[in-house]
Each structure stands twice: as C-alpha cells, then as structure tokens.
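W.,

You were right to be curious about this one. When I first looked at the sequence I had no strong expectations either way, so I just let the prediction run and decided to look at it fresh. Below is the sequence, 142 residues in total, followed by the output.
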Amino acid sequence: MDLLLLDMVGTASWDDLSEETKERCAITATDLIDQHEYKGATAADDQALKFPRTGISDGDGRAIADDEIPRIVEKAWATWAFALSQDDTLLSDTGLEGFNRLKAGKVEIEPRHTRRAGAMPEHVKRFLRPLLKNSGGRVVRA
C-alpha cells in the first residue's frame, strides 16, 4: 500500500503512521470495499473477498484478467485506507440520521444526510465506478 500512496498528492502523513495503524486501516478499507456489489462474478467459488472477478472490464471496456485485482481497486483501497487514517469519523454516523428537522426555540436545523457511517467517499467511488453494479454510467474526464 505504501507504494500505491507514494505518488498520490497529500498522502505524506501516511509514512508517519505506525505499521499497526496502517494495517488496521487497510483491513477496514478491504471490509468496506467488500460490502458493495460488483459486476461479474468472483473468480473462485471459495475465495474470501470479492476480487479478483471474472467478466469485468475497465472504464474503457478493456477486459480485466480474472486472476488479478484491478489497479483501480488497489487505488480505491489505498485511498480509502488513507482517508480512514486521517478521519476516524468516516465510520461514525452523525447522530442526526433519524431526523429530518430539529427545532429548539427559534433555532431550526435541517440536516443534510450526505454521509453515513462507512459510506464510500466520492473520491474512492470514482475509482470503482466502472466495476460497481448500477453505478450510473461511465465517467468521462475533460
């Protein structure tokens, strides 16, 4: 994972983390990635994780070998692990999920439910979008 983060802007603080913290973040990111549904099928019936997969292609339609974990998955995994290392609230609900509106006297708050505990951050989703089921189409960069 260190090599994946090496070339990413803003990830220098990863090097300062203990190996134990890095490992915990990597395991958590793996678990979170595995909670989503992906195109294709697992490469082996007895594999523990969702990757590698058969019948998948990258965002440009190139087939991905069924014996490899796609580079975009590795980048998403590293990016999510790094995000977790920097913000442990990514695994916590805000506490306002059950409310549409809160009012105390003249003060009224309408929470924007834009984040849920363990939800995939948008910058991670951009890596995985070509592989996600029902991802809403292809991303084209200008």
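Here's what jumped out at me. The radius of gyration is 18 Å. And, maybe more interesting for your project: Residues 2-86+117-128 form one domain.

Coffee later to discuss?

I.
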